[in-house]
Amino acid sequence: MEISKSNQNLLKKCSEYFNQGKVISLGTGLPSLLPFVLNGSHDSIFLSSSGLVGDWRASTATTKYIDSNGQYVTLMPGSSIVGIGEKASIISGGYVDTILIQPTEVDLQGNWDIDGPDTSEIDSLVTNCSQVIGLVPLNGLQKFTYQLDPSRGFERLSKIITERCVFGVDGGKLVVEELANGTTSDDIMNAIGINVPISPNCQYYDVDKVGTSSADMIGSKVCKDGASAVVDIQDGAVVMIDGFAGPGGMAHYLLVSLRNQGAKNLTIISNTAGIARVVNFGTPPGKLVIDHSILIDNGQVGKAIASYPVSPSASNPSSFELAYRAGEVDLELVPQGTLAERLRAGGSGVKYFYTPTGAGTLIAEGKDSKSFEGKNHIRESGLVADYCIIRGYKADRFGNVVYKGTSRNFNAVMAPAARISIVEVDEIVEDDALDPELIVTPGLFVDRIVVRPAEFSPYE
Q1: Which one of 3.30.70.3400, 3.40.1080.10, 1.25.40.10, 3.40.250.10 gives the CATH number of domain 5-209?
Q2: pLDDT at residue 213, as a whole number
Q3: Contact, 146 vs 107, CB < 8 A?
Q4: What pTM, to 2 d.p., does this model score?
Q5: Is residue 140 over pLDDT 70?
Q6: How far is 409 from 391, CA to CA, in rounded Å?
Q7: pLDDT average, residue stretch 416-435
Q8: How far is CA 242 from the centre of its chain?
């Protein structure tokens, strides 16, 4: 793929304004060429409107992957694929930090307009991101105007990057904030046909020396052990914990690490609050499975938000059940399907939703209710957490995770809903070992990875 020198300079320049390690949404046109120019030399996570996450290279042959411009590409190690629903969750959940667009028009106030396939998702992107950067070549392309029709324009751009200068907005007016050495205000005027003032604080730069961030955020995801993975979980934190009912699919090693770390007054969000060791199926004779109970027995849990927190046998109560009877812990009981949706909603930026489940029961007490199509619904809120500790099967150093068996129960919806997602896996594989289309949890949702030691036993 041939990318002109001026466009390469423009794309490299815009990368200087990315926030470290964040998700950058690449629109059609120039923005989608950024991975080809940076070629892995950056610490950002690129998101294409076609669903690519990570990095990719142009391909001269037909492949099964296309970028925002519909060009065939080859994915680089650590990249993954997300569908429309997952992509909407990434956008609405606030994971996108910066949007790169190529506007069709820009006015002197920094307002802009755009056409094409980006338009359908642009409102959500603008609402849920930190900055919108426009890429506009100066090369005689008359995209600048004095004032856009307010009904056609969007919010103001944070920056407008060209191959010879950088525009910003100061006091509601467009100004030149940076100029390439050797470029004058007359050059800008001649290129765009409009006079834009030079900021008194204007910076000058060499176009041949614009660079990218050199920080390596990827390697920091791999923790040396469980203790280092949970070291900063503080008293009073909200922690999501995976698991269904039996011993499989739980981050047993991280649970032990959290018990040993000792954080108190935790609110745990889980399907159960630790019934695996009283249900006991799948557990070797004479053994007790490690589950949420070890945190409760250690006096670390103040509240549980769960669907099934009590033992199915009245004569064999769980640790949480005993603590609840003693008034030592609080409980928010949530129907299982509602719990799954509250987790999904939290990770997708959905504050509230209505469901008929629980209407007319104790679950509905104190909750807003509405009637839809003659059926009563109650309002439930999306769930978010400070941390989640979940079990995976394999991961790469980028944080991409695949699951095995019951380790895929609530994990895929917990990871996006936590501020810090910590994943326990059996192994960390080579960069290109995971099929991008089989990755369940993309690395952008994962903050820390720890390998369960081979000698570790999930039973006591």
Answers
A1: 3.40.1080.10
A2: 57
A3: yes
A4: 0.90
A5: no
A6: 10
A7: 96
A8: 19
